[in-house]
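Q&A FORM
Asked by: J.P.
Topic: structure of Helix-turn-helix domain-containing protein

PROVIDED:
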Amino acid sequence: MAGFRVPGPLVGDLRVVPHPAVMLILEFGSETPTVGDGAGRCLRGSLVAGPGFGSGGGVRAWGNGVECVQVRLSPVVAGAVLGVCPAELAHGAATLDDLWGGEASWIRERLGGADSWQDRFDFVDALLARRATRPPVDPEVAWAWRRIVAGGGLVRVDRLAAEVGWSRKRLWSRFRSGVGMPPKRAAKLVRFDRAVHRLVAGEDAARVAADGGYCDQSHLHRDVLAFTGATPGAVVGEPFLTVDDRAWPT
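REPLIED BY: S.T.
REPLY: Here is the structure written out as tokens.
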């Protein structure tokens, strides 16, 4: 979990950069923020976004006096915790009002009335533990996801299928049902996430491309553009990426 407070307006609207996690954003600021998904939808208030939300670019967030607790959940546990698996999130995201009904307003009030960030984190932690009612994903799917993350997205899908004793088709189907995307797409998203954070840290693009399994620097450039709708030079200046090392320390 991480807590964010942005006094005043979000300058220039913030680009939503895809991430390999399910994002739960619980807002309680002075004004309700809005996320535009690039397809004409505007999602107001707290929301749940599936892994890779924002892919393709065009997803922006704006608001004034934004305060929120953001939770990053592994896709393999998100369904059990949230009551909705990533594959069920229409268009990649849904408002908390749509998913949890009136409880969303109660959560907002509790977060706004808390005395400290630690109190908010403790409240959210207990809330998610209480709501963990669904069974987890197949152990084979969870194992495959962990292998993809640990390998930086460089693991081949047919090798994963062989290691769990499934056919490639079965792994594709069960993985997509549990995680919300097929394994090849998941691997590509993990690889992109690793690469873009190394670029933000100031590492050489050619080295990042070589280490990340890209054919060359142009391949990396195309991948960043496909996920974000922007060039690597533009993406590395996005505010929420530049504070990731403080909000989500490794």
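FOLLOW-UP: The two ends are 13 Å apart (CA to CA).
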